[in-house]
Amino acid sequence: MRTTNGTASHGSGPVIRLCDADAGAQASPCPAAWSRGRPGDLAVSYGHRDLQRMGIGLLQALASIGILVFSVCTMLTVGLSHTLRELLGPLRDSRGLVRALMANFILVPLLAYGVVQVLPLDRSYATGVLLIGTGAGALFLVRLTAVAGGNMPLSASLTVLLMLATVLYMPLMVPRMVPDVSVRPAAIALPLLWTMILPLGAGLYVRARHPTLAQRLRPGLGKLAMVALAVLVAATLAANFGGVVRIIRTGAILAPLILIPGAFGIGWVLGREYRGGHVVLGLGTGQRNIAAAMVVATQGMGDPNAELMVVVSSLVGFAVLFPIAWLLARRSRVRALSRAPVT
């Protein structure tokens, strides 16, 4: 095969001529340059920008499918694994409940506000940080708790509680913190209904009526959720790689690197009073509600840089909290081995 200046051929066969539609007239205009081609030659015009947009669109579609499959499978698994009484039990601890709400809707928003005041952030990036700080209750808490070997019923209850509170909290607080932003509660509530509440209810129903079927479905759904999570993280990173590099170069990456671990620390400290405690509330406070923040960033503002900061914060959350969850699980295993009787 020989290749010359946008032309590729195999032996003496027809020539396939490629041109860059985005290159401009000075770069080699296709019609004029190729009008002398032999009969049978095929000219293919393409644009680098169009191909790039198509690739990013495909990755974004994969990420959307990943989050949908992960959400539905995770909540189905929770419903198939626990009873309604087990899920509602942790909510009876009123003192712990107050601490969870205080951590997520008072202290973490204050931390986010302090971060944007101290760091020299672009206004759009600062807005993204504030959206992350005000949105609580992420579905990934259930997976993080499973990795950490924590209290699964508590994590599911806390996730639903914080998400419902976020639906009420963000429309009230975000316009006060970012005056140019409008928030529609329904835009946050409807995805919560379809991807969390209904699958959870379906899982609880199947477990109550068909326990054998529930036991058979759990392993497959758990594996599918892990595959979907891997696709979600990889596609999100690939689709936003250029933006991630830009945020790293400007130093704006420091904002989520401070906010996410700081939020985990707040939950860890306050979670000691929660039944089953600091592991779940630490992870639950650190993992912010990326979906709600993205809804507000896209529908309430339409600011690409604010959206980018939300996406980067989600990647930072994965990079920080999953290793923490793994370390917590390892710490728990070491403690269990040290307490085991020696025979």
Unreliable segments (pLDDT under 50, ≥5 consecutive)?
1-38, 40-46
Helix content: over 70%
Report on the biggest sheet.
4 strands, mixed
- Strand line-up in the sheet with most strands: 1-2-3-4
Radius of gyration: 25 Å
Query: Mean pLDDT, rounded to whole units?
Result: 80
Pairing-aware structural class of the strands and helices? mainly alpha
**CA-to-CA gap between the ends?**
72 Å
Salient structural properties:
4 strands, 343 residues, mainly alpha
Describe this structure in words.
The chain is 74% helix and 5% strand. The chain has 343 residues and is mainly alpha-helical. Helix 4 runs antiparallel to helix 5. The protein has a four-stranded mixed β-sheet. The chain is built from 14 helices and four strands.
How are the secondary structure elements laid out?
Elements: E1 2-4, E2 7-9, E3 16-20, H1 30-34, E4 42-46, H2 48-81, H3 84-88, H4 94-118, H5 123-134, H6 140-148, H7 152-177, H8 185-209, H9 211-239, H10 241-250, H11 254-270, H12 278-286, H13 290-301, H14 304-339
Parallel strand pairs: 3-4
Antiparallel strand pairs: 1-2, 2-3
Helix pairs in contact: 2-8, 2-9, 4-5, 4-7, 4-11, 5-13, 5-14, 6-7, 6-12, 6-14, 7-8, 8-9, 11-12, 11-14, 13-14
Summarize the structure.
About 75% of the residues lie in helices and about 5% in strands. It is built from 14 helices and 4 strands.
